[in-house]
Write a structure and sequence with these properties.
Blueprint: H1 4-7, H2 14-22, H3 35-57, H4 62-72, H5 79-99, H6 104-110, H7 133-143, H8 148-152, H9 163-178, E1 251-256, H10 258-261, H11 283-288, H12 314-321, E2 329-333, E3 359-364, H13 384-399, E4 406-411, H14 417-423, H15 439-449, H16 462-485, E5 491-496, H17 500-509, H18 533-541, H19 547-557, H20 568-577, H21 597-605, H22 633-636, H23 643-658, H24 663-672, H25 678-682
Parallel strand pairs: 1-2, 1-3, 3-4, 4-5
Subcellular location: Cytoplasmic vesicle; Secreted
Pfam families: Lipase_GDSL (PF00657), Saposin (PF20825)
Subunit structure: Heterodimer of the large and small subunits; disulfide-linked.
Length: 683
């Protein structure tokens, strides 16, 4: 018979935090107490608290609240089935203890989910009972003295030994250890499956049976036969070789920790007053993504924000600037990652220096080099000398894999004193109903169990918080020095501060409060609102004098720089269609967004107002002049009920008719003005 207390860990959130412990590879100290037991304790307290509060919110019995909780869970991953199994066989003791007014701490210590080892402090989330702890615990044990739970609780069985979960655990652990998609038929490190390190983490594969087809590669023979880089653009016929030529496609790669992976536990999962049938819809996805949401991250996210933030991820900005960048993103982040353990999974990065496009790599290990859950976290912090060694090893690896023309950005560490200063006296979601759990209590509970994400900053000890911030500043300075002094052949190296103060100021301008930028459940990670971080990145870049950095950030934003390869008047037309001011040579009436094809035609034909209007025939069935004659006549005759098609086809016709002698200008025009959409109309 399986251990009942291990089966109970399958209950909602208990399973979540158990999986979270297995997902964190940063704990290299084998002398620490068992993290599995510590996370088991945290999970038990959370689940029992939710059961108790559900009974309170709905004025029901504990039995009914447990059944209600199970009814909310989805069938996937056997969550609902396992939950009902727990109720059927082992819920009676929990019911007895809660009915006797024992709080979650007492329940979990009584059932031995939580244990106080000899010489160790008593770890508790809620205020201690009015009676002595020893007396209360003895009283609780008398209530369940005949329980089978206690008989089996000393079993050493692991949660993944359960037959119903063994296969799931195997898949998740394999994906986590290798940081590559579990479902990847052609082993090119890209997948058609969303989770288990699939396309939520890196661009979706469009042919999982051909390892030469994957996002980010240069097109094979201009994609005449197939879409070899999965960006959705097929270049059919010679004319359409112009599709991505000269548009400078670039991908985005993030080397990060749980913040970069966008670690998130939904408050609805532990807030009884907010629970409903819809609360746990995304739970299976979250579990198979290690409780991370990379599809919403500020660097590689490709889905719209769920909290109404209008800022787009860096990937979406690159995609908006150039659709040839479609699907070229990789989120190589892990919970618990740091400069110390990056070498364990950096091999999962996919880039071929000969076959692939250049890319932008962001190194953002913003916490774990100074953060740990140890009782004395200072000795475990990375030293500046060790960080220098780790970063140089990483940069050498990147230089041997990245295509020439890439960029690497080293991201500094934040000042985490913000956490305690803004959260310690606020109520945690578990404490909002009865006003009995603050973030200070949560931090103390996690620190006692030595499973805190960052004891140094999540502590009531001001001296410790200050020491942690000082070390973070030292490490940031080390990164800054590396960026200023080291040169590499295949990429330019930049440094950027963690512009947290600018982020807060921007958020406050929008009427928000600083504490709203932090994940409410763990009280540590930046939440989705911190996609505003991208705004901070761009704000910071404007204060730098480095010309290459300015060009890079302008490139990300989509700002066009008129150089010798692109005619000044063509740039002027592009500025106008982008809604920006043009040069003073053009009529002021044109210095506004062009919303119609005739206005754009006039801009192009008169070279942005610098030449008289040419006598041209309408663009109809006769087609364009010069290169325009190569386009099928049917293109110009698109139906009137497809205005978008007419708009882009007219742009393409004008591009091809602008300059027959200078093909590069024609190519630039086609790329800049949206001809990459042409294949959509030729299919």
């Amino acid at each position: 018979m399986q251990s009942p207390w291990k089966i109970l860990t399958v209950a909602p959130l208990f399973l979540l935090l158990s999986l979270q412990s297995s997902a964190s590879p940063a704990n290299d100290d084998q002398s620490r107490p068992s993290l599995s037991n510590a996370h088991t304790c945290v999970g038990c307290v959370l689940v029992v608290s939710v059961i108790e509060q559900l009974a309170q919110v709905h004025n029901s019995t504990v039995q009914a609240s447990m059944e209600r909780l199970c009814s909310y869970l989805p069938e996937k991953l056997f969550l609902k089935t396992t939950c009902y199994l727990v109720i059927d066989k082992f819920g009676s003791d929990i019911i007895k203890l809660l009915s006797a007014d024992m709080n979650a701490d007492v329940v979990c210590h009584t059932l031995e989910f939580c244990k106080q080892n000899t010489g160790q402090p008593l770890c508790h989330l809620y205020p201690l009972p009015k009676e002595t702890w020893k007396f209360t615990l003895q009283k609780a044990r008398q209530i369940v003295k005949k329980s089978l739970i206690l008989k089996y609780s000393r079993s050493g069985s692991d949660i993944c030994s359960l037959p119903v979960l063994a296969k799931i655990c195997q898949k998740i652990k394999l994906a986590i250890e290798q940081s590559v998609p579990f479902k990847d038929v052609d082993s090119d490190k890209y997948s058609v499956f969303p989770t288990l390190r699939g396309y939520h983490w890196r661009g979706r594969d469009c042919n999982d049976s051909d390892e030469s087809v994957y996002p980010g590669r240069r097109p094979n023979n201009w994609d005449v036969h197939q879409d070899s880089n999965c960006n959705g653009i097929w270049c059919i016929n010679n004319v359409n070789k112009l599709c991505c030529l000269g548009s400078q496609p670039r991908g985005i790669i993030l080397l990060g920790d749980s913040a970069g992976a966008h670690f998130h536990i939904s408050p609805e999962w532990i807030t009884a007053s907010q629970m409903s049938l819809n609360s746990f819809i995304n739970l299976p996805t979250a579990l198979t993504n290690e409780l991370d949401w990379p599809q919403l991250s500020g660097a590689t996210g490709f889905l719209d924000s769920t909290v109404g933030i209008k800022e787009k991820s860096i990937y979406l900005r690159l995609w908006k600037r150039n659709h040839c960048n479609h699907r070229d993103y990789q989120n190589i982040s892990r919970n618990g990652a740091s400069s110390r353990n990056l070498k364990k999974f950096i091999e999962s990065l996919s880039r071929n220096k000969m076959l692939d496009y250049p890319t932008i790599v962001i190194y953002a290990m913003i916490g774990n080099d100074v953060c740990s859950g140890k009782s004395d976290p200072v000795p475990a912090m990375t030293t500046p000398e060790k960080l220098y060694s780790n970063i140089m090893q990483t940069l050498k690896h990147l230089n041997s894999h990245l295509p020439n023309g890439s960029h690497v950005i080293l991201y500094g560490l934040p000042d985490g004193t913000f956490l305690w200063d803004n959260l310690h006296n606020r109520y945690h979601p578990l404490g909002q109903l009865n006003k009995d759990v603050t973030y200070a209590q949560l931090y103390s509970f996690l620190n006692c169990l030595q499973v805190s994400p960052c004891h140094g900053w999540m502590s009531s000890n001001k001296t410790l918080r200050t020491l942690t911030s000082e070390r973070a500043e030292q490490l940031s300075n080390t990164l800054k020095k590396i960026a200023a002094s080291e040169k590499f052949t295949n990429f330019n190296l930049f440094y950027m501060d963690f512009a947290f103060h600018e982020i807060i100021q921007e958020w406050q301008k929008r009427g928000g409060q600083p504490w709203q930028l932090i994940e409410p459940v763990d009280g540590f990670h930046p939440n989705e609102r911190n996609s505003i971080l991208l705004k901070g990145i761009l704000m910071t870049s404007q204060t730098l004098d480095n010309q290459e950095w300015t060009q890079l950030t302008s490139w990300i934003k989509g700002n066009l720089t008129c150089d010798s390869r692109t005619r000044e008047w063509l740039c002027c037309c592009w500025r106008i269609i982008s809604g920006k001011r043009c040069s003073s040579s053009g009529p002021k009436s044109w210095e506004r967004r062009i919303r119609s094809t005739p206005r754009l035609n006039r801009c192009l034909e008169t070279k942005a107002g610098t030449e008289p209007l040419r006598s041209t025939h309408p663009w109809g069935a006769q087609g364009g002049r010069g290169l325009g004659k190569l386009i099928p006549q049917t293109l110009w005759g698109l139906p009137r009920h497809r205005p978008k098609g007419l708009f882009f086809s007219s742009i393409f016709a004008k591009c091809l008719s602008l300059n027959e002698e200078h093909i590069w200008t024609t190519v630039q025009c086609c790329v800049l003005l949206g001809s990459v959409t042409l294949p959509l109309f030729l299919k």
